Request: fold
Amino acid sequence: MFCYQCQEAAKGTGCTIQGVCGKTSDVANLQDLLLYTLKGISVFAVKGRELGLRNAASEKFIIESMFATITNANFDRDGFIARVREGVALRDQWKTQLSSLEVTIPLSNHDAALWVPGTEVEIDEKAASVGVLSTANEDIRSLRELLTYGLKGMAAYMEHAAVLSYREDNVQAFMERGLAATLNEDLTSEELIALVMECGKFGVDVMALLDRANTSTYGNPEITKVNIGVGTRPGILISGHDLKDMEELLRQTEGTGVDVYTHSEMLPAHYYPAFKKYSHFVGNYGNAWWKQPEEFASFNGPILMTTNCIVPPKDSYKDRLYTTGHTGYPGVMHIPAGVEDKAKDFSAIIEQAKTCPSPTEIETGEIIGGFAHAAVMGVADQVVEAVQTGAIKQFFVMAGCDGRMKSRDYYTDFATALPEDTVILTAGCAKYKYNKLNLGDIGGIPRVLDAGQCNDSYSLVVIALKLKEVFGLDDINDLPISYNIAWYEQKAVIVLLALLYLGVKNIHLGPTLPAFLSPNVANVLIENFGIGGITTVDEDMEKFMAMV
Ligand code: FS2
Ligand code: SF4
Reply:
């Protein structure tokens, strides 16, 4: 195996024996093979689209399978083998359909468009030969992977929008074009860089689409205080990002005597009006994804993982853990999609919850959030006045991901060290590094404004663009906003590319720069966008404040 798609890549270069995430070597290879299969499908889907032909099953398959290969989403070997076989069958359907048209199909002689799966052993052998290192040139490899990881993040957001019946054809078309392009040996570095930038454009589009999907379905997030203590009844803990699962679980648990709590990236569900009506939606339990081992153990009840990030479970709670959607873990119960138009059936989780003790209290109090674009626009006058009077000197976008590494304490220390006339704009699970610090407020505006999940970084962009308009500025970089972003997995990659596409400069990215950036590709990002890493809190604070 060789995997370097996330921030925790071993030794800062790549996992080669087993993933730091817990992914085994065979599963890592099978994920590579699935990706290769998706590229093969895309070769034909691009041509089909050009000819006005579509295949809804292959479109759906590409998005769902891309999502399944994101860090910490799915560890299920058998599931990946089944997906590879299904993918090749879909590719061959396309092939048959196009063969009667006698058209020239670029890349149709590529092995990804031709290979045929045999026995499981042969699949494993093939899987070991198609990974990241099969591209010899390190800059081309770096650009192909940067594009691929952006596409993976894009797929996650497409899927969340799709479950709410929101799709955008241009985004799907780019997904297929981008995947096929990574097979093309003729593309130059410049052409690949252009595709990476285009990926950022579609990143903005997909986040806007998901924002529409979420807010049209569940209302605009509202400023909300969320309980972080526990009740006395048994509970179900729901994690991940899928709001449709959230809705369904709340509906099915109503009146059962079982409470529902959120974990990690599901915390922002509390901000949506549609979920506030459920009195058994008690609060948020615990912190970011990587705290699962201790927090899932002390929760005492069943836990539903709707998306990544899954930490390989401890025996102490494995029999209370459930996956659904495109997540999976061997030996963990999976809740399948509902048949035809039927909702997923969560009754097994609810029945188990009834037999469990209530959660052990690990903290008490409240945290505040819900500062997505509509809520912030509602208090825009107050914010603008605070900036004009100098009460707020600078905003710091500290969005993105949290993770296990000790070096991420930097973000807690940085937030603590920020001057009192600064405000943190956050989204994603990165927030857990500073959302319980009680940093106070500026004239009633909390110093940590949580917009929501990682995809709600879009809200931060909308807010920035609105401020730019209000202050009559030509350039988004003239705003009093600095960017100190933490990343972990591929959704952070699409968010980053989206910010670059919007022209945001001088983003600091940590705790380490991606291992998949070759020195030359990193230089392109440094020279054109001023991207930088992090150093120490003191040194960075000095640099940031000098720019104010
Ligand atoms: Fe956190 Fe994991 Fe949200 Fe990432 S819970 S690192 O998936 O996308 O952010
Ligand atoms: Fe390693 Fe991250 Fe890949 Fe897991 S996803 S194998 S931790 S680089």
Observations:
- The first strand starts at residue 224 and ends at 227.
- The chain has 20 helices and 15 strands.
